[in-house]
Amino acid sequence: MSFTNFRSWAKPNKGGMIVTELVQQLLNGLVMGSYYVLIAIGLSIVYGILGISHFAHGSVVMVGGYITFVVVSRIGLNFFAAMLVSMVLTALLGIVIERVAYRPVRNAPPINAFIIALGLGMIIDNVMTLIFGPDQVIIPNPFRSVISIGNVHIAVLRVLMIICCCVLVAVLLAFMKYTVMGKAIRATSQNREASLIMGININVVTAIVFALGSAFGAVAGSFIGALFAVYPSMGTFTVQKGFAVLILGGLGSVPGAIAGGLIIGITESLGSMLISSDYKDVFAFVIMIAVLMFKPQGLFGGKE
Question: 122: domain range?
């Protein structure tokens, strides 16, 4: 729908259609918002601990999707069992990335880690292209039915994605608040030097953080691969949206990542309805810039 058609679309006699379309787009926004939340949480906890802009995270999300695809299509496990396998393997990949790529430059200038992240993403993308080719693949899944309430429709798989996102976020918040490791992660994000003095093993903390972030990325890649597709070049676009969410919510803030992901997901859907879906990918960056003009630290970011 183009902007020039907005006035005729919004005539009073179309009130029922407007409400239906609004509810439909809000549901679509929650689905994409859940996807962005799963991506941004991984970026957020890594940045909060190490101050690293983990630009290879989009490629990790893509790897998680491909692992689920292989386990479902070639081994024959069901979708959720395959996603669990993907979470474990992708978590191990995150630990390897932290140990091999980032730990050697932990105390170096930030530009070193930034360049390594860019190079790492390119390496992963090209390796996956060699293995799977450049074409898109769709993850097989049995959840093909649609839930209809009046004229509002939503696929069962989309509902499952929203539920999984809510459950994983609740588990993560409980883990961060109530477990010893969660408290160590929060302490390290607040003051790494003091955490060292108190006997916290920073190497273990960073490894756990990368594992958690990568596992969340695997869930995002699995669902997006089942709903749309997985392809080797998706990492760049994925991480761009992830950092838009991260900056909007506040660097290093998990609540900010949650709020930012939902805001951008819903904004994209409503923008597609009111203006045009051609500009859907621009809306995330427009709202990010608008918020930063009035709150440079992001919605939940603290002042330096």
Answer: 21-294
